[in-house]
Recover the amino acids of this structure.
């Protein structure tokens, strides 16, 4: 059970003046149950990449295997694939359309042709998973706050019970607490349901805090693919492509330059604090 | 002199039910006293729904107080005859870059405000040139806004406001929809306007790092101003900020963690460099 | 994909045609179209062709961009040609089964095709060399006399230019929402007509909401920048006729005269049986 990408290329508007090579020879293996972060500056190909995982975009060449089967095969069931690889777009609340939250969450499972009772059971489960209280279920999506709308939209994907959950900047536009809440919720989902989570984010701090593996995209290519500590060790190269390391990494490098025995690979606040305390003999 | 002066400012609106009857009254801004000095850089923090956007819209007279008063450069915003002067004094930049650019070409958009002011063409051109240069977008004057990055679009929107030569610019979460590089671009542009052109700035944001260099920080919650002070003072209250759904800069957070473990670090450390210096002092004391 | 569609098809280049006043270009296009229908001799069409080629060359827009506009009318063109070819009676040239092609049929078909193609190419020159805003400005000023009969010319022009600005944004948005719903198993392609219309609801509702939200934001942004209708507003790029514009009007007049002359020659030639 995994996703495997082989020599994937994608060219936009081929043959016109707007031609753009958005993905170049991408090779990746995404095994089950990982929590993966994808980073890259705007236009690096990360959004294009994730749209290939559920077959919304079809590579110009190369292949994507889901559980060993090439999704570009004749007659491959794309609808089922999309239910297994759930993709939450940026600002997903803009896709809400039903009269109430509950019906909107039912839309996905209903499209899969599931009977009404199963659909509703799934919707209830999904809404509970994202922590949206029952009193909001029968409200119009437009009566909810920004953070609640975002959860409702994510529930709409979860109701299809995906094995892989891909989220494109799920915290964009939310306030700090809203950001933490959503990410904690996703972490819990990952831990409890053992689903694969692929998180696209611009926040190096968030990435460092939650994921176990980072894929760095640059100009349509995979530039790094490793653990956060290893990837952020290349912070100079990351800066050159418009990215950065988490801020604490800079602190640790600064201290190391001043002769401290600081852990320069620390990427989270906790790791940094622990290393500083150790240096000071506490 | 206070360029913006609000006294017991409140704003209420009615929520209507499906038949259009008033269902409940919402007090979005609740008795706010606000004083902004000319030339200051003021940041307003607050979670979604804390009333900070509603307050911001008052400064441009898009909304007028239902109770209390607000004076912008000595003009009462409730006085309809002065509304256009107020809008010229206090420009406004909004969150979504796409929804505030009117022109199909960058320079045409920047000229929109001066056109509304009825200025002669040559004067408009001069202003457009000055403003686009001030935000570093002069080379893009002949481009279509649709082809620009988010940060560039916001700089064009800022230029559009600057072209009206306002004394004060209110920016309502201008960086919320941008990537980190776009955010830096915009904040740097705004800081420069404040320093070089002495434009008063009110920046509303969710990103604590953008606030560090402000002269003053105002924290809003439930329509009220609940904290006010320098960034150092405000970010000394880590727990209170968290309770108000806010955050602190990463450096402050590390310092706070270390304090909790018993390190005698001062409150309100804002940057990593500052923190490194303080840690160095501590090590010196020991060794 | 929807993003490939280009609506405001302005092609930036540095040519005298680009610099002309939009009103001149509007008038020129009108003159050209009228001339195509008013004068129908082969000689007149030679003159029209020469004029068209000359303008294209001067405009510095690659001809393939002109041809792009033709793609959309290719079906219409074929139908016109086929109908004319087979349905016009006269001297039979070829007979295929029950269908006959006549000399007159060929002539009319060719003329119709040329007329349609020139019409599209002629108006593409205008849209390719004029920014949409400039074009609406031109329309606004050319139609200003209508203000007197209470046609809100300024407001219409403002609406047009805002629409032009937002069409690409809404197209992209449509693409995004479509994908987002497809990620939830939506199907926009199969089913009968009613089914398909029903399937569009999850696309249309969010799209409308978004359009309204944008309109609301934009109205606020415009007000914040001091917009209060056309009154008292000045123009950053006011339309003032320059020397080249007056020359262009003269060229147009000359063109009409040449067309008229060419038409007379053709007419005379036919009367005297020279053709």
């Amino acid at each position: 059970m995994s996703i495997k990408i082989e020599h994937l290329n994608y060219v936009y508007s081929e043959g016109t003046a707007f031609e753009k090579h958005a993905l170049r020879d991408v090779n990746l293996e995404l095994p089950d149950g990982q929590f993966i972060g994808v980073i890259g500056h705007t236009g690096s190909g990360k959004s294009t990449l994730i749209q290939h995982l559920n077959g919304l975009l079809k590579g110009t060449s190369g292949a994507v295997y889901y559980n060993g089967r090439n999704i570009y095969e004749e007659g491959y069931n794309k609808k089922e694939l999309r239910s297994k690889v759930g993709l939450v777009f940026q600002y997903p609340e803009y896709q809400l359309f039903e009269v109430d939250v509950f019906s909107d969450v039912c839309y996905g499972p209903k499209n899969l042709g599931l009977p009404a009772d199963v659909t509703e059971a799934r919707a209830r489960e999904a809404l509970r998973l994202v922590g949206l209280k029952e009193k909001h279920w029968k409200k119009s999506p437009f009566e909810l706050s920004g953070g609640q709308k975002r959860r409702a939209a994510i529930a709409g994907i979860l109701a299809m019970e995906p094995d892989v959950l891909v989220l494109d900047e799920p915290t964009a536009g939310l306030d700090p607490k809203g950001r933490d809440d959503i990410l904690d919720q996703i972490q819990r989902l990952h831990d409890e349901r053992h689903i694969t989570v692929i998180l696209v984010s611009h926040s190096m701090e968030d990435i460092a805090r939650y994921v176990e593996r980072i894929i760095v995209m640059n100009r349509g290519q995979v530039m790094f693919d490793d653990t956060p500590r290893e990837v952020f060790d290349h912070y100079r190269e990351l800066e050159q492509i418009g990215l950065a390391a988490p801020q604490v990494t800079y602190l640790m490098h600064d201290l190391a330059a001043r002769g401290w025995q600081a852990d320069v690979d620390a990427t989270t606040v906790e790791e940094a604090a622990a290393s500083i305390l150790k240096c000071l003999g506490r | 002199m206070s360029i913006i002066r609000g006294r017991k400012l409140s704003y209420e609106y009615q929520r209507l039910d499906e038949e259009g009857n008033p269902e409940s009254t919402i007090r979005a801004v609740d008795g706010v006293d606000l004083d902004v000095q000319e030339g200051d850089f003021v940041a307003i923090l607050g979670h979604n729904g804390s009333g900070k956007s509603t307050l911001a819209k008052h400064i441009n007279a898009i909304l007028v107080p239902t109770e209390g008063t607000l004076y912008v450069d000595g003009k009462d915003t409730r006085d309809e005859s002065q509304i256009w002067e107020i809008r010229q004094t206090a420009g406004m930049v909004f969150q979504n870059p796409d929804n505030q650019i009117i022109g199909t070409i960058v320079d045409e958009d920047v000229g929109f405000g001066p056109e509304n002011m009825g200025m002669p063409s040559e004067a408009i051109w001069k202003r457009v040139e000055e403003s686009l240069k001030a935000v570093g977008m002069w080379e893009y004057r002949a481009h279509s806004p649709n082809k620009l990055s988010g940060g560039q679009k916001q700089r064009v929107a800022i230029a559009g406001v600057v072209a009206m030569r306002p004394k004060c610019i209110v920016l309502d979460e201008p960086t919320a929809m941008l990537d980190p590089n776009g955010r830096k671009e915009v904040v740097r542009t705004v800081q420069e306007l404040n320093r070089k052109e002495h434009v008063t700035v009110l920046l509303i944001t969710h990103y604590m790092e953008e606030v560090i260099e402000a002269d003053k920080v105002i924290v809003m919650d439930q329509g009220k101003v609940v904290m006010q002070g320098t960034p150092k003072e405000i970010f000394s209250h880590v727990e209170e900020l968290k309770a108000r759904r806010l955050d602190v800069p990463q450096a402050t957070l590390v310092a706070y963690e270390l304090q909790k473990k018993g390190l005698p670090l001062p409150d309100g450390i804002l940057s990593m460099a500052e923190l490194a210096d303080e840690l160095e002092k501590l090590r010196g004391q020991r060794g | 994909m929807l993003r490939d569609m280009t609506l405001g098809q302005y092609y930036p280049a540095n040519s005298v045609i680009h610099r002309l006043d939009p009103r001149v270009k509007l008038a020129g296009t009108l003159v050209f179209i009228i001339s195509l229908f008013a004068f129908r001799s082969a000689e007149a069409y030679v003159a029209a062709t020469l004029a068209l080629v000359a303008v294209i060359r001067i405009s510095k827009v690659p001809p393939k961009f002109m041809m792009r506009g033709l793609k959309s009318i290719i079906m219409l063109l074929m139908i016109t040609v086929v109908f004319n070819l087979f349905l016009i009676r006269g001297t039979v040239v070829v007979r295929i089964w029950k269908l006959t092609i006549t000399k007159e049929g060929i002539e009319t078909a060719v003329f119709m095709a040329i007329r349609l193609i020139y019409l599209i190419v002629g108006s593409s020159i205008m849209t390719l060399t004029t920014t949409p805003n400039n074009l609406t400005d031109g329309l606004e000023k050319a139609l200003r006399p209508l203000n007197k009969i209470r046609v809100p010319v300024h407001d219409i022009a403002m609406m047009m230019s805002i629409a032009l600005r937002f069409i690409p944004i809404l197209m992209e948005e449509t693409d995004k929402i479509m994908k987002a719903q497809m990620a939830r198993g939506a199907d926009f392609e199969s089913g009968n007509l009613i089914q398909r219309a029903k399937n569009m609801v999850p696309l249309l509702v969010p799209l409308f909401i978004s359009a309204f939200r944008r309109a609301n934001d934009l109205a606020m942004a415009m007000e914040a920048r001091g917009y209060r209708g056309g009154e008292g507003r000045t123009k950053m790029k006011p339309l003032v006729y320059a020397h080249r514009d007056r020359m262009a009007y003269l060229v147009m007049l000359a063109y009409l005269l040449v067309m008229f002359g060419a038409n007379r020659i053709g007419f005379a030639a036919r009367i005297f049986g020279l053709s």
About this structure: Chain B touches chain A at residues 46-49, 95, 149-150, 176-177, 179-182, 206, 208, 242, 245-247, 250-251, 253-254, 257-258, 261-263, 272-273, 275-276, 279-280, 282-283, 286 (CB under 8 Å). The longest strand of chain B covers residues 22-37. Chain B is about 35% helix and 25% strand. Residues 2-231 of chain B form a domain with the Rossmann fold fold (CATH 3.40.50.300).
